[in-house]
Design a protein that fits this description.
By secondary structure, the protein is α+β, with helices and mostly antiparallel strands. The protein is about 55% helix and about 20% strand.
C-alpha cells in the first residue's frame, strides 16, 4: 500500500532535506564571447544563497591579460563579474579552471561564442572543475546540457520532490494520480516559461517561503485523508497541484533565469530544461509506485506510528522550512 512505500521514501527525503534550502544547486554561468582576434568579453556569474557567495573563483589561462579592469555587480541572487581580456594566439587549446568548484555541489554552465557565429555550450562539474576551450559541438550537445541540467535540478530540489511526494500520499486512484501529476506539470511549465522569457518574476526569498508553505499545507491534509475526513484538497488534489505548481514553476525557472542566457539560447534551453524536469519528476513517481508494488507483493506489516510517519515528515519539514524562509524574508526587508 502507499503508506508502506511512503515510510522508506519519507526517511530518505528527511535525511537529505534537514539542512536544505531551495535551489542550492543553481548553476554558475560563464560566457565567453570573441569580439575580435585574440580579444574576448567574459561574463562570470555565481549564485548567492541566503547572502552567501559561492566559494569558487575563475582562473583564466596565464596568457590572458585584462584590457580593462574587471567590473563586479552584486545582484540579489548572484554576483556578476565582467571583463575584457586578450589572449595571444587565441583561447583555443587553453584550459580555464574553476577553483574551489570541487568542494561544492554546483555545476557551471559554460557558453562560448566565436566571431563567425559558432557557439558551444557545456557543463563543468565539481568532479572535473575545468574546461578545455575547443571548437563548438553543435545544437545536439547544447540540448543535452540543458536536458541533464533539468533532470538534476528536480532530483536535487528536495522541496519540490517533497511536495510531489505529499501529493502522492493524497491520491486514491490511478486516474486521480494522472490528473494530479498532469496539473502540476502544466502549472509549473506555464510559470517556468513566463519567468524564463522575462514576462513574470517573483523575488527568491518570498518564493522559497511560499514553496515551503505549500509543503506544510499538505501535512494536515494527508492526516485528515487517512483518518477518513474530506476536504477540497482531498477530493480534488489536482486543484492544489495546479495552484501550488504555479509557484514551483518559478522555482524551477531559477535554474535558467539566474544563468542569464543569451536570447538565442533561451528557446532550446527552456524546452530541454523543462523536458529534463519532467523526466526527473516521472522517475521519482515511478520509484514510489515500484515501492508500492514491492511492499504489496511482500505483504509487509507496519506499526501504526510508522505508517503515519510520512505525513508528519511532510508537515514537519514544511513547518521547519517555512519558519526558516519567512525569517529570511523579514531579515531581507
Amino acid at each position: 500500500m502507499m503508506r508502506t512505500a511512503a515510510v522508506c521514501m519519507a526517511i530518505a527525503l528527511m535525511c537529505s532535506a534537514i539542512p536544505a534550502f531551495a535551489h542550492e544547486a543553481r548553476p554558475a554561468y560563464l560566457e565567453i564571447t570573441e569580439t575580435k582576434a585574440e580579444r574576448y568579453s567574459v561574463l562570470w556569474r555565481t549564485p548567492v544563497l541566503s547572502g552567501m557567495q559561492l566559494p569558487v573563483k575563475l582562473a583564466l589561462p596565464a596568457e590572458a591579460r585584462d584590457v580593462i579592469e574587471p567590473y563586479t555587480q552584486q545582484l540579489p541572487d548572484s554576483l556578476v563579474e565582467r571583463r575584457i581580456v586578450e589572449v595571444p594566439g587565441g583561447l583555443g587549446g587553453h584550459r580555464i579552471d574553476i577553483v574551489g568548484l570541487q568542494g561544492t555541489i554546483t555545476d557551471v554552465l559554460v557558453r562560448t561564442q566565436w566571431r563567425d557565429g559558432r557557439t558551444s555550450t557545456e557543463l563543468v562539474r565539481p568532479s572535473r572543475p575545468w574546461i578545455d576551450v575547443a571548437a563548438p559541438r553543435g545544437a545536439l550537445a547544447t540540448a543535452t546540457v540543458f536536458l541533464v541540467q533539468g533532470i538534476e535540478h528536480i532530483l536535487l530540489g528536495v522541496d519540490h520532490l517533497l511536495f510531489v511526494f505529499g501529493l502522492l500520499l493524497l491520491v486514491r486512484t490511478n486516474w486521480m494520480l494522472v490528473k494530479t501529476i498532469t496539473a502540476f506539470t502544466v502549472a509549473h511549465s506555464i510559470t517556468l516559461a513566463l519567468a524564463t522569457l522575462g514576462y513574470a518574476h517573483i523575488p527568491a526569498e518570498p518564493l522559497n517561503a511560499v514553496i515551503a508553505l505549500s509543503i506544510l499545507f499538505l501535512g494536515p491534509e494527508i492526516i485528515r485523508a487517512w483518518n477518513g475526513g474530506t476536504s477540497l484538497t482531498i477530493r480534488h488534489p489536482w486543484v492544489v497541484a495546479f495552484v501550488f505548481g504555479l509557484m514551483h514553476g518559478f522555482g524551477f525557472a531559477s535554474g535558467l533565469a539566474t544563468v542569464g542566457l543569451p536570447d538565442s539560447d533561451i528557446p532550446l534551453a527552456l524546452l530541454m530544461f523543462n523536458v529534463g524536469v519532467e523526466i526527473g519528476q516521472l522517475a521519482f513517481v515511478a520509484l514510489i509506485m515500484l515501492l508500492v508494488r514491492a511492499f504489496n507483493v511482500l505483504q509487509m506489516q507496519w506499526p501504526h506510528w510508522v505508517s503515519v510517519a510520512p505525513a508528519y515528515v511532510v508537515g514537519s519539514l514544511g513547518a521547519l522550512w517555512s519558519i526558516q524562509r519567512v525569517l529570511v524574508v523579514f531579515e531581507g526587508s
